[in-house]
Amino acid sequence: MIGKEVRMNRLIPGEDGKYFGLTVDHAIARGMVKGLDIIDDTIAKMAAGNPNAITMHKGIAEKCFARFAGKIPLVLKLTTFGVYHYEEDIQVADVEEAVCMGADAVSVGCIVGGDNQNSQLVQLGRITKEAHKYGMPVISHIYPRGNHITRPDQYSVESVTYAARAAAELGVDLVKTNYTGTAESFARVVQAVPTRVAIAGGMKCSNVDEFLQQTRDVMDSGAVGVTYGRFVMHYPDVTALVLTLNKMIHDGLSLKESRELLEHLENKHKEAGEHVS
User: Fold this and answer.
1) Catalytic residue among 4, 58, 89, 143
2) What torsion do the CA atoms of 240, 245, 250, 252 make, to the nearest 10 degrees?
3) Bridge partner residues of 196 (DSSP)
4) Count of alpha carbons within 13 angstroms of residue 211, beta-carbon side
5) Is 25 assigned a catalytic role?
6) Domain 2-272: what homologous superfamily?
7) Residue 81: phi, psi to the nearest 5?
8) Is 143 a known active-site residue?
9) CA gap 143, 84 in Å, rounded
């Protein structure tokens, strides 16, 4: 489908085939976390680091993203779980809206391992079919955290592989899922899932060194990339961190080189009084 190929080439334009996505889709799911309360500023700081795409809901896209249209690809979030419905993603937008907004992909959440897994997978399959009819790539945020899965098992190779493979079986173009903790263990997930696989989140990291180490390990595992949100939004210099991650993911910077670049950019921005929260 030429439309899907065109959009995928905008999402992943480099010959390296790597993907660096950011998200600001958390408000319904997790409440008003830091960074979402100043959403225009947060998006501007993220965009200054030139990520491959930013994921958001339709209202934020309409009100806050117009000035970046055609510069940063938009991924429109079509579903969400919520503070009061944590174990189920519900549909809140559709593919037609994504087409009208000029999105380059749609994002669909899915929670497996619970009593409602059947309806979650039916929803993912239905939206994927509709998206592909319009030539629209699908990114699935799929997590093994239903009520039959214990907290530790949400990050096990077996559970994460099950979730990611389910998305691949339904035709998803890029899977975003939990990180299993090491490059070696996540490589097993990547090997078992015949589509692009990226990790979600860095909130288990206690500091930026751990965050950069995680990113380097993920790239070394063979994953296509990362999709980050809250850790980046909470960081004191959002743009410096995004620029550093961009170089790590697309240019293969080592952990040492990434730390040095981040420090350099932070000092530069402090001297100029720019981009620091």
Assistant:
1) 143
2) 110
3) 174
4) 23
5) yes
6) Aldolase class I (3.20.20.70)
7) -85, -175
8) yes
9) 17
Chain segment 227-248, per-residue pLDDT in tens: 999 999 999 999 999 999 999 9
Length of the chain, please? 277
Single out the catalytic residue among 4, 19, 25, 77.
Answer: 25
Of 156, 194, 198, nearest to 176 (Cα)?
198
Ranges of residues in the chain whose predicted pLDDT is under 70: 1, 274-277
How are the residues of the chain apportioned to helix, strand and coil, as percentages rounded to the nearest 5?
Answer: 50, 20, 35
Among all chains, which residue has been given the structure tokens 């408000």? Answer: 27
Please write the tens of the pLDDT for every residue from 163-216: 999 999 999 999 999 999 999 999 999 999 999 999 998 889 999 999 999 999
| pLDDT for res 202 | 84
Structural domain boundaries of the chain? Answer: 2-272
- Catalytic residue among 18, 58, 77, 176, which? 176
Residues 53/58/59/64 CA torsion (nearest 10 deg):
20
Gap between the Cα atoms of 144 and 134, Å rounded: 29
Residue 235 a catalytic site member: no
Separation of CA 152 from chain center:
22
